Amino acid sequence: MSELETGDVILPPPVDREDAQKIRVVGSSTVAPFATTVAERFGATTRYPTPIVETTGTGGGFKTFCQRIGPNHPSIADASRPVHESETALCASNGITDITALSIGFDGIVLANAREAPPLDLRKVDLYRALAAELPDGQGGFIANPYKSWIEVNPNLPDEQIMVFGPPPTSGTRDAFVELGMEQGALAIPDMAALQSADPDAYKLRTHTIRTDGAWIDMGENDTAVIQSLIKTPTAIGVLGYSFLEQNGDRVKAAHLDGVAVTFEAIASGNYGLSRSMYIYVKDQNLPLVPGLSEFITEFVSDRAMGPDGYLLEKGLIPLKVEDRLAQQEIAEQLANRGARR
Asked: Is the pTM of this model over 0.70?
């Protein structure tokens, strides 16, 4: 179920008069550090004010982004997953019909624990068994997840309580985690593979529904809070973006996944099983209404920002291949031309 169907509309915060002409960016907590870095550079090196970047989660960002056209409303939605059809429909219902997606690079979803905790080598099937709300009972039905410790899930894992600090339902990181991790991991179980073949919708619901008995703890749209909680609870595991691991490598470390270590190269090549793309979505109808919007987009996808030697790599960005990067830059140029013609 889409987050658009589960909660109230998130209205944009009040806009001070002095902020009315600033570029407004909302969305993913994973993409926010990159957007903030570009915004600060943009404000310091151009004649335009520094854009406002708000962390709302990918789903919350699209809700706000899709409300209205105009300079007082977000022009860009950060996202750590592709936009959902229901979100595009919400935008269209409010007259927002011209939206352009640009890929800015890759990130990996990390399963981290405290530096002093034992090293972990998890499998995707372990993630499903540990965190799904219900598991097959072996007789064609389902039972509430009975597992309390990791050793019950996999005898090669520690005899420690299952406790995972992770993002809330509005987060693109959570969406990607259940899709790339739990959904794929469940295929290793014959009953679940059979369900996937017989009823893909039921399979997706079963593998995307996380248990609510305390094994998974929502931490809000704040990976820093996850890291702080891991330090206080060394036996716990946290779900966070690779960029946050890079910035906090002295305090937390990452588990291997299916035998693969989390490295820059493994994410870039796709060998790491929880690799995902990151995006910015542009409200094209705001291009002639918001000063500097096309210039900001051009800066975001430039080589100096997201290229192989760009300043975003210091924040943990995994860059696109050269041909893909050139394609995004061409899209940005088209947006600039479109804004100039209006």
From this structure: yes
